[in-house]
Amino acid sequence: MKMTKSARLYISETNRLSNVSIALLGSLLVTGAFSGVAALAADPTDKRFATLKPADPATTNAAPAVPVVPVVSPALQQALAAYSQSPDQAGFDRMVNVMKDVLCLPPLRDADASVVIKNHPQLADLGARVIDAGGAKVWAFNKCPFAQTCIILTGHPGSPALPGKPAIPAAYRAQLLSMPQNISIWSAKIVTKSNPAPMKVVKVGKGRNAKLVKQAAPAAPVAAAPGAPGAPKYLVIAGNDRSTGLITLYGLKPTDAGWAAAPDLFTSVPPFLLSSVQGKASFSGSDIVLAIASNKPPVEKPAAAGKAAGPASGSYKIVLKFVNSKYLLEGKAPDEGPAMVIHQFLQAVKDGRQDVAKAWLADDHLASIPKYLGLYGKSDQVYKLVAMSNPMGGGSRFRVVTFGKDDLILDVGTIKKTLYGKPASYVAIKALFVAPPDPFAKKLVGVTPNFERIGDPAPSSDATTNKIEQKQ
Predict the structure, then answer these.
(1) Strand order in the sheet with 128-132
(2) What is the pLDDT of residues 359-368, one digit of tens each?
(3) Is residue 383 part of a domain?
């Protein structure tokens, strides 16, 4: 069959349009495919197209990582190895001299002390420990039998330059401090500020209108250290003899040549407290708290024969106050806190007023203990108070030295009750024990406050009034 010209033109036009449609459809399909690929590649959770993600320019241009320098001193390692091979006094002295120098140089200069000990394991075998004294660091070697030296490190790290301020280079100084053999150092503190002078308690008025008033004693002027403005600095180091347990205190002051002994720091403290007592010394601010163990600590026993059970604690607490660049024995007046309650109780016992004595007791039955000891009505009885370690249940504990057959130990704390329908709190004696005399306590009473030196206010016969006055 022979096609006409018009028919051939129609078929050609149809084919051309079909090809155009196919091409257009193909382009649409390709475009949609690329769009889907781009969408998948943009999804950070789709790991199939991770290679299509653009590279981070910050990552590609970053500088190579700087290798971490190990905090190890070859010189100190050699000195420690030499001491391990021949542990003697000369070997320890050589090692501690090397350590004094390398602590002021990188990489140990800016490293934490725990990292230094970890990277030099032999230091842990020597019992090396670092005590931050607040402005100085004290390196001690508490397990080394040849340690007659500790290292005192002072200085400051470097700081970068700031706008208008130049850079400050790091500066450190290490010093060796000689000390007796067999001493373990547990605490150290730089003290720079004196506490106010202790208050003086005087009796004002007569009869029932009499009262105790605190008056500030005139403070002596504080002399500034040579070449340093303001109050002088002192470095106090506390430790114990490893064989006897005796407390050891060192006082140092800064000089141009380094830290030097400051013997005047403890001249007002009785010598036996610094040389012949066992216990532990700690710091409370600039003050030193001595927890002194008794030679014969009382053993807790059940109550029997009308006597109360004895306390388990046998240590005494003595506070050395830092006043006017010297340490003094704390002289708490009996009108302050728990001591005042004991003072009022003992005054009622001396006056034979058992009803008034009950006003200061949390349990009225405790008033029978002084009666059992025959203390009521002894107006000439002398009592002395010695602070002891606080009981585990909280509060304060004191020993009352009676200079007789038995002493008293009293626990004082805060009591909360409802009086007249309203909550009230007051300080009272929560426990009262009978204890045998302690020779060490009698030795301490010569340097602790005596109740007889302070005037006694007139006691009140109203027990409830006494309790309400003790609100806190």
Answers:
(1) 128-132, 137-141, 149-156, 171-178
(2) 889 898 999 9
(3) yes
